[in-house]
């Protein structure tokens, strides 16, 4: 696939602050089910000799946790923005609870103490959350996060409760980080010359790709072929809607009766409101990629208007 450098705040995954919803009661305080479970898990994980199996956590799967995450992310995957229509998403642990697989393949104990911690839970589709082979132009490739949680090279990983506060994660947390600063979307071509919605790490002023953006794309598989095509389907629908607006605008320019022009202007306003509601609002599917396309459209319209103005001025001169 062709690629293009991103160097600015074109768009983003979406950031959704956890302040927007209440913490589910089962996770909320020292009397909660989660806290009781955590105390049992502490006894389990501090046994001598150490246990061979991780503690079987279950409170994080309570219905009220699913509901709260659905409200926070509008039934979208927190990483890729796929909007589910049916069964609930996996509840993904930002820091894996059972074990962590290092980039070199080494397996380490997970962050068991965060298994039912609200700030460690995200809704994720199966393609983002689970390791699965997908066809690529270079053959089958294993995508999906599963137990990966990369840290900045040379920094240390927490092995005890509370140690995570000192970590330097590379994976973006959509409930904390502003993805605008790290990743961006643009339309490119695949090998067959078809338009696809690509994602890249933001290129910083020094010409270096943003480390966290690239790690997030690689860890989640935000560039997997099925996803670039799904995003492109939304963008194709957006393009059709914007083409309709352009046609109305052309009708507006050629209309010579004031009442007619006003009526067309009202139509344009209504169509633009429809575009925003269907593609650009935070809860629209693949809204980050659609916002990037919308900004590119606005830039093209302005460039065209500028060219037409210059051409008109030259004719007058
Ligand atoms: Zn996803």
Short description:
By secondary structure, this protein is of the alpha+beta class. The chain is built from eight helices and eight strands. α6 runs antiparallel to α7 (258-280) and α6 (225-254) runs parallel beside α8 (287-316).
Number of strands: 8
Name the ligand types.
zinc ion
* Termini Cα gap: 46 Å
Largest sheet properties: 2 strands, antiparallel
Shape: elongated
Compressed to H and E, one letter per element, the order equals: HHHEEEEHEEEEHHHH
Decide which structural class fits the backbone. Answer: alpha+beta
Q: What Rg is obtained from the alpha carbons, in whole angstroms? A: 24 Å
Q: Could you explain the architecture of this structure?
A:
With 317 residues, the chain is α+β, with helices and mostly antiparallel strands. It folds into 2 domains: 18-176 and 210-219, no CATH class; 231-316. The chain is built from 8 helices and 8 strands. The chain has helices spanning 25-28, 33-45, 63-73, 126-129, 211-220, 225-254, 258-280, 287-316, and strands at 90-93, 99-101, 107-109, 121-124, 132-136, 139-143, 183-189, 195-201. The strands form 4 sheets. It has a two-stranded antiparallel ribbon. Strand 2 and strand 3 form a beta hairpin. The chain is elongated and about 90 Å long. It starts with 24 loop residues before the first helix and ends with a helix. The relative contact order is 0.13. The chain binds zinc ion. Zinc ion binds at residues 77, 79-80, 82, 124-125, 127-128.
């Amino acid at each position: 696939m062709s690629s293009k450098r991103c160097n600015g705040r074109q768009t983003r995954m979406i950031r959704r602050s956890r302040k927007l919803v209440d913490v589910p009661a089962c996770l909320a305080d020292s009397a909660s089910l989660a806290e009781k479970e955590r105390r049992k898990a502490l006894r389990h994980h501090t046994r001598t000799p150490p246990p061979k199996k991780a503690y079987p956590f279950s409170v994080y799967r309570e219905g009220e946790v699913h509901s709260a995450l659905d409200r926070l992310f509008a039934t979208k995957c927190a990483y890729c923005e796929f909007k589910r229509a049916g069964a609930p998403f996996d509840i993904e642990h930002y820091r894996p609870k059972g074990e962590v697989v290092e980039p070199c393949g080494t397996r380490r104990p997970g962050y068991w103490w965060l298994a039912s911690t609200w700030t460690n839970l995200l809704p994720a589709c199966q393609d983002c959350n689970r390791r699965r082979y997908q066809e690529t132009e270079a053959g089958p490739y294993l995508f999906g996060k599963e137990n990966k949680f990369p840290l900045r090279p040379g920094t240390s990983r927490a092995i005890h409760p509370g140690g995570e506060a000192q970590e330097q994660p590379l994976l973006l947390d959509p409930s904390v980080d502003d993805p605008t600063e790290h990743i961006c979307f643009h339309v490119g071509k695949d090998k067959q010359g078809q338009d696809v919605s690509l994602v890249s790490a933001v290129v910083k002023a020094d010409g270096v790709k943003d480390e966290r953006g690239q790690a997030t794309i690689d860890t989640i598989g935000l560039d997997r072929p099925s996803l670039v095509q799904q995003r492109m389907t939304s963008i194709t629908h957006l393009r059709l809607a914007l083409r309709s607006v352009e046609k109305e605008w052309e009708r507006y320019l050629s209309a010579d009766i004031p009442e007619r022009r006003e009526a067309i202007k009202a139509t344009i306003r209504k169509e633009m409101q429809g575009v925003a509601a269907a593609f650009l609002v935070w809860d629209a599917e693949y809204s980050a990629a659609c916002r990037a396309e919308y900004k590119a459209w606005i830039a093209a319209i302005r460039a065209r208007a500028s060219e037409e103005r210059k051409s008109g001025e030259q004719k007058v001169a």
